[in-house]
Every structure is written in structure tokens, then in C-alpha cells.
Amino acid sequence: MDDRVLDYGDVLLRHRDVELLKGPEWLNDQLIGFFFEYLQHEVHAALSPRLLLLPGSAAFLLASLGADGGGAEVVLAPHGFPGSTHLALFAINNNRDVEAVEGGSHWSLLAWAAADGAFRHYDSAGGINAAAAARVAAAAAAALPGGSSKVVQQPMPQQMNGWDCGLYVLALARLLCGRYAADGDAMRFEIAGSEVGPASVAALRNELHDLIAAKVAAAAAAGGGS
């Protein structure tokens, strides 16, 4: 049986992906990739190519190929990084097994800003993903002329359960993209509890479910099916 729900950009969503949004469940790479595509190509399409959102699958490949052997160029050049990129956001997963589909146990967000060349890591569960973020930063820095791979661990509100990490990544990505759209390179990177927290990420879970439903309905109306 064909369990496809939605083809959206480079992402294919299936019923099992959407079911995760009924919670309490851990978001997978497909859902994070969908929201990243939505932010980059719909909400902030006018910022292209200054804005880059790299989903977990691409960030994992980047870290796996490493800084040597042209790994950064293989993964990042098709996305135009560094090129004209001013703000890059990477979805970080702590999976290290290339044979483990949807492996790992935690999501976090790594941000790079051209304005100061800094990598900033946002982790809603302390420093669990610090090593994973460092691997991605080291690989990405290989594409930056004289770029530093040093990662600043950015203070942020912490999750209150074991399954909302992916939603924190999406909430942070939306917030940072919005700031860049409003303030450009002068954007701030500090995160307040009033901006991202348990209530807002819980609402985002429902919002994401409704967004996917709306895209499915629109595709059906346009004759694309589901």
C-alpha cells in the first residue's frame, strides 16, 4: 500500500511521519526537513540565497565525510555555501552510525553567521550534542577560507521532557530566520524563555500538523493527490 502523504520540495512525508506529530513522539528527519524547506522556500523565499537551512540528513553526511577529502564541498557547494550565504542553520543529530536509519537520540541547532564567522550551538538538553555540533562545524569550516570551527555553546531555555528536542530546533530556526529577515546581519542570537519554551513548542507541534494537512489539501485540489 502506498502510504505517501505529501511530496514537498526534496522531502517525502509518509503516514508514519505525520503520526509522530500526535505525540508525545520524537520528530524525525523528514519532519524537520519539511519545516526547513517551508521556511526557506516559502516563508523566507525572498532571502535566497543569503539564507541556508540544512536538514539533519545533509548535516549528518557533512559530518560523516569530514573536513578532509573534499567532504564539505560535496555537501555544501550545491547549496551555495559559503558563497552568498549570510546565515546557515544546521539540524544536528547525535547519530554516528551511517547504517542506522533515523538513528540518534537528540536534535539541536547549529547556526553560522557570515557577519562574524561564528558557529553557535543551541541545545535544549544541556550539552548532549556538543560533540556532534563540533563535527559538523569542523567539516563546514573546511569550506570557509581561513574560517574557524570554534563553536560557542549558546544559552537557551531547556526542554522539560525527552521528546520535544526536534520541536525546539524548529522553533529556534523559525525565530532566527525571522530575526534575520527583520534585522539582517545585525540580528541578535540570544534566546529568551519568553520566545521559546514548553508552551510554544507544544503549540508548534499542532501547528506543524495543521500545516502539513493544508499542504496535502492544496496538492489534492491542484490535482497532485496525496
Features:
226 residues; alpha/beta; Adenoviral Proteinase, Chain; 5-stranded mixed β-sheet; two-stranded antiparallel ribbon; 7 strands; 40% helix; globular
SSE map:
Layout: E1 4-8, E2 11-14, H1 15-19, H2 29-43, E3 51-54, H3 56-65, H4 71-76, E4 87-93, E5 107-113, E6 118-122, H5 130-141, E7 151-154, H6 165-183, H7 198-221
Parallel strand pairs: 3-4, 6-7
Antiparallel strand pairs: 1-2, 4-5, 5-6
Helix pairs in contact: 2-6, 3-5, 6-7
CATH superfamily: Adenoviral Proteinase, Chain A
The domain count comes to 1
Helix percent band: 40-55%
Estimated structural class: alpha/beta
Largest sheet descriptor: 5 strands, mixed
Spatial separation of the terminal alpha carbons: 13 Å
Brief characterization of the structure:
This protein is α/β, with parallel strands linked by helices and 226 residues long. It has seven helices and seven strands.
Report on the structure:
The chain is α/β, with parallel strands linked by helices and 226 residues long. The chain has a single domain (4-221), classed as Adenoviral Proteinase, Chain A (Adenoviral Proteinase, Chain, 3-Layer(aba) Sandwich), CATH 3.40.395. 40% of the residues lie in helices and 16% in strands. It is built from seven helices and seven strands, in the order ββααβααβββαβαα. The protein has helices at residues 15-19, 29-43, 56-65, 71-76, 130-141, 165-183, 198-221; strands spanning 4-8, 11-14, 51-54, 87-93, 107-113, 118-122, 151-154. The protein has a five-stranded mixed beta sheet, with helices on both faces. α6 (165-183) packs across α7. The longest helix has 24 residues, at 198-221. The model has no long low-confidence stretch (mean pLDDT 90).
